[in-house]
Amino acid sequence: MSSPASHDPVRAWAESGIPHLTGRPDGPPLIPPGHAAARARELTDWIRTASAGAVDVDGAALLGERAALTGHRRQGDLTPGGSGRLLPASDGWVAVSCARPDDPLLLGALIESEVTEDDHWPKVAAWLAGHSRADFDERAALLGIAGGGVAHGAAIADAARDALRPNGVPRPVDGLLVVDFSALWAGPLCAHLLGLAGARVVKVETPQRPDGARRGNQDFYRLLHDGHESAVLDPSIAAEREALHRLVAAADIVIEASRPRALRGFGLRAEDFVANGITWLSITAAGRDSHRIGFGDDIAASAGLVAADDAGPMFVGDAIADPLAGLTAAALAMCEPGNGTLWDISMRATVASTLGGQPSPPTHRDGDQWVVDTGSGTVPLDPPRARAGGGGTR
């Protein structure tokens, strides 16, 4: 079990590596607001207990694990990977991602103007200057653009109402069958932790839509998928569609990280399988009833998790909504009773629920080391680190 001191919000942030990913490129690392890193440690405490110690990881460190392998660093109002930006609207700020090949075309549709890969950001910025965050949110949801207006004040508390946290009695998952339909980071992290706890994990992809993370950092992909089985099934082929249904029917836990209509298009309705006793983990940008999509960076910023200076807001960490949602999903899967439960995990709500509390303290140099004063001592700001295994290196 983590010590009480390790759950201090400032200490948890300092030891997570996230400050190295937060701030201006030419400025100091910053302690983010809220207590997401301490929440991550609470979640891994739950997972450690449920797995009888089989899963012994530091939730705070998991938040920066991908950046430790990719080498990404802080870029202020750009995401560490460079595909997203924070831009001013007429009444605040908007976080926008442009990570997919078709995103420039979608951004052109947003602003009703032809754009190219070279000029889409200036044109979007000019459009946003004359439109509100609500204008952007409405059009982005209709067009399938990843992004959202940055929440503040009462809007953060409102978003946090849908957050889920584990409660009751932890349950073991060793020997259970997990069918994982997810991609990228949040769902695969959940599946990874359940696999470490002894579950059998089968990753399901279609030929048309393989996991996009396969094209990313290979050490990170192997780290999350080591030891899992793979099934590539085409629902347009009758025999493979039937095989897909049989696999889900045999599952104890299903992980879904897309809007519900995606699996419903394959004839898979979560409610039907939950009625038969399956635990269904549904991870979405803003809940199953929302049409919004998003990536970890823009979701976290839109929930209100941003650092700020006189020049404006900055992204916190590297797609931090992803690992926080993945940890939450894994802990919820390890709640008793687990069977026959549909967990509706909103990534935006999960992040929003970690905000509030004391202002973030400043950081300063002590020789060659950046440090922060927690109030009970000075703590060095460690860089992000990754666990060894599955191709990953420290």
UniProtKB/TrEMBL annotation:
<dbReference type="Pfam" id="PF02515">
    <property type="entry name" value="CoA_transf_3"/>
</dbReference>
<dbReference type="InterPro" id="IPR050509">
    <property type="entry name" value="CoA-transferase_III"/>
</dbReference>
<dbReference type="InterPro" id="IPR003673">
    <property type="entry name" value="CoA-Trfase_fam_III"/>
</dbReference>
<dbReference type="GO" id="GO:0016740">
    <property type="term" value="F:transferase activity"/>
</dbReference>
<keyword id="KW-0808">Transferase</keyword>
<dbReference type="InterPro" id="IPR023606">
    <property type="entry name" value="CoA-Trfase_III_dom_1_sf"/>
</dbReference>
<protein>
    <submittedName>
        <fullName>Acyl-CoA transferase</fullName>
    </submittedName>
</protein>
<feature type="region of interest" description="Disordered">
    <location>
        <begin position="353"/>
        <end position="394"/>
    </location>
</feature>
